[in-house]
Design goal:
Low-confidence stretches: none
CATH architecture: 3-Layer(aba) Sandwich
CATH superfamily: Ribokinase
CATH class: Alpha Beta
Mean pLDDT: 95
Length: 299
């Protein structure tokens, strides 16, 4: 469950200062949104995937429907007649591939308990349920509760960082924050693997089953009461755009778990997917296929 937005991607050497206008070196308009990216990435990684969302009734909604048709993502979608489909401003630094993003979720802000209840049978029949925080915290928690009650493995990608009640953490079999989000939730600055371990303990104390903390070029840390395993990143030479790396990681991990992989193996699979995604432009369009991930994983 999550949101779709149309990503308007601008590539420049830097962001403009207040009052300044810069000429864009390259512009692309394409599909994005964390939930949508993760649904597409999970399908490409080999999982049968359903996506729950809300769209407007406009050209961007048509873009989304076409995307799911092409990628084989099944959907539970409602359309708003009053609110537009979401859109995001994405700035990509052409020198480093780093990004800065502003999201306007549009119709997806109205993902509510009623829509989730109508999708309950889809959630309950899944092996893994994953959501993020681009829709409301209340909606995310309601869906996680439905999944947890049905014995479905739950993953929360807690991005963007929001104020979360302890009840939300307690519904997470896995939580997958990046370094910035981990700091926001624990108050512990995460720069090293040992920092991540300390922050992982703090997340476990909130009721999380396993913390899977992404560490950029340091890989990821899989941390729970039984293990604390560092999974190194895969090195790639041509970093183009880091926009979808986190989504590729989360989706590949969810797909691996749904296929019965052990969490450590799933995290390695996820690191390989993230590495491939940053060698390509865009978000949804950069998500790698299962065969590509396996090739890098075993190279």
């Amino acid at each position: 469950m999550g949101i779709f937005v149309a990503d308007a991607v601008f590539q420049t050497a830097r962001l403009p200062e207040i009052g300044e206008t810069l000429l864009c070196n390259q512009f692309n308009l394409g599909p994005g949104g964390k939930g949508s990216n993760q649904a597409v990435a999970a399908a490409r990684a080999g999982a049968e995937t359903f996506f729950i969302t809300k769209l407007g009734s406009d050209a961007f909604a048509s873009m989304a429907i076409e995307l799911y048709s092409v990628t084989g993502v099944k959907t539970v979608i409602e359309h708003s007649e009053n609110l537009p489909t979401g859109v995001a401003f994405v700035h990509v630094n052409q020198n480093t591939g780093d990004n800065a993003i502003v999201v306007a979720p549009g119709a997806a802000t109205t993902i509510d308990h009623a829509l989730i209840n109508r999708a309950a049978s889809t959630i309950e029949s899944a092996s893994v349920f994953i959501t993020q925080l681009e829709q409301s915290v209340e909606a995310a928690e309601h869906a996680l509760q439905i999944a947890r009650s049905a014995g479905v493995t739950t993953i929360l990608n807690p991005a963007p960082a929001q104020v979360l009640p302890d009840s939300t953490f307690q519904l997470c079999d896995y939580i997958t924050p990046n370094q910035t989000e981990t700091t926001a939730y624990t108050g512990i600055k995460v720069e090293t693997v040992n920092d991540a371990r300390a922050a992982g303990d703090a997340l476990l104390s909130k009721g999380v089953g396993t913390a899977l903390i992404t560490l950029g070029d340091q890989g990821a840390l899989l941390h729970n009461n039984k293990c604390s395993n560092h999974i190194p990143a895969f090195s790639v030479d041509n970093v183009v755009d880091t926009t979808g790396a986190g989504d590729a990681f989360n989706a590949a991990f969810a797909a691996a778990l749904s296929a019965g992989e052990y969490p450590d193996n799933g995290a390695q699979f996820a690191c390989a997917a993230a590495a491939l995604s940053i060698t390509r432009e865009g978000a949804s369009n950069a998500m790698p296929r299962r065969d590509e991930i396996l090739t890098l994983l075993h190279s």
